[in-house]
Design goal:
heterodimer, A: 369 residues, Nucleotidyltransferase, domain 5, 2 domains, five-stranded mixed β-sheet, 18% strand, B: 225 residues, alpha/beta, 5 helices, 25% helix, 30% strand, globular, binds zinc ion
Amino acid sequence: MQGETMRILGIETSCDETSAAVVSDGRVIHSNIIRSQEDLHERYGGVVPELASRRHVTAIIPTIDLALKDAGIDRDDIDAVAVTEGPGLAGSLLVGLNTAKALSMSWDVPLIPVNHLEGHIYANWLTDSSADVTFQPPRFPCVCLIVSGGHTELVLIRDHGRYDVLGRTIDDAAGEAFDKGARILRLGFPGGPAIQRAAADGKMGRHTFPRAWLRDTYDFSFSGLKTALLREVEKYRREPTRPKKVVSTEPFPAHEPPDYAPNMPAADIAADFQDAIVDVLVQKTAKAAEMHRASMVILAGGVASNSLLRRRLESALGVPLRYPTPQLCTDNGAMIAGAGYYLYQRGITASYDLDISPQLPLSTETSLA
Amino acid sequence: METDKPVLLAIDTSTEMAGLALYDGRRVSEVIWHSGRNQTSVLLGQIQHLLSMNRLELGQVGAIAVAIGPGMFNGLRVGLSTAKGLGYGRSIPVYGADTLEVTAYPHRSSHRPIRAFVPAGRGRVVFGDYRYRNGRWVRAGEFQNRAFEELTSGLAEPTLLTGELPANAEAERIESPNAEQPRPSLSVRRPGCLAEIGWNRWLDGEPDDLNTLEPLYVHSARSDG
Ligand SMILES: [Zn+2]
């Protein structure tokens, strides 16, 4: 396939987005269909794994079909199928992986197993336009901060496929902290955008939240923040005038947060809460970039869309910062197809006995085929 | 099974016993194995194996039948995703069939009431009651998701109790005055039966819509979150 365009169908179902995309040569996006399940999980304030898995089963084929149609590419012109093998929710991963394997067998094309985190990283190598001649891929070595609802990892990337995980969260992911915070403050789901919107109207500096610095490591901890937030809003808690019915016959009952007095300054609290998360992310990332002489810093994952995080990082760094478009920050098939291309270039494909790996860590492949 | 006609591939991963069958309208070829929760890594290899043993190629598969439960949720997702991927990838029709109907299918000639069951995980079973009425088999009442110990509850007349025992079941036989249980070899859920059910639907025309086909989820009546 030397010198020829390689078109990869990428499939991603690790959490609550069903997505499929067609990307050529790890760079140009022909289509990227993302079916979000936000409507489904909103009332729970977080992703319910069983419900997510169920939605993938019905969404997977229409999503793939639309990705092929949108790309205007015939299925005979697909050169490989790349799919997320992990990390993620087992029931969700199963749907994408088994569908991908069946397609690989049906079309007799290679199957490429992709680590979801590696997918997020390679979103920075993608562009919407083949005509974009100014597009330059990121330069090595670079430091990548992967921040999403499921992950918070600081990674040094020395070359394609060469990763050193410098640090990660020891409890909640940054996006999860946003989700939990937004739920406590009754701001909606997903929490990141909800907190950011509320914080825009708030005044910072009126509420203090702790920072877990975990000195001398690049690790993060966000679970203490949730406790601190609960303590803060407790002052404004209001008991419901009449007791709520707690009996539910639903298979997946939602647990409702308490009511608050109308004078609770939710926007102010959100502003300080956001500041506490961003502060730690920025300081650790800037330090890692400096220590490892990174030529640039790249962001990945849903929280990479947070504008306070971008602004603060830009002023804290002595090297360029880049991040994907908002659509490419969320979980999507294009990033899987993109990472799949570089894996394939290194000779990595899977056989049909490939299984899901819900706990798959990000690491340099040691056993090259 | 050398044939010029297209064959039907049946896929059943409803429980820890997985099964595949090929059917050309006359002859059934089957493979049934205890896969545990390992269906994802084994299923495609077994499909290739069954095809090659019968000197067939994937291109000769003209339709797919898939068991849609009740059963183990993750197992069902494996079978349905594989069936949908093959159906879409090869542009061939997919027919979903209820796993308890497949379980009861080989015992229909007895004309006695049948209670068919599948393990549903965590020591639970899902069962359905089938009766022969006015020359045809009908399901009586809704599917029940119960603790395994309640499998024989409400049996008012001698009933054939057939299905796969849950992994945690202590005894191989179920002791109850009205329960008659076939030997293990006759209790095993046969992918060949799924293939026959799928074949009849293939002859009738209307395949299932891949955009809506999903497992049958049978929850217990009591909410346990
Ligand atoms: Zn992600």
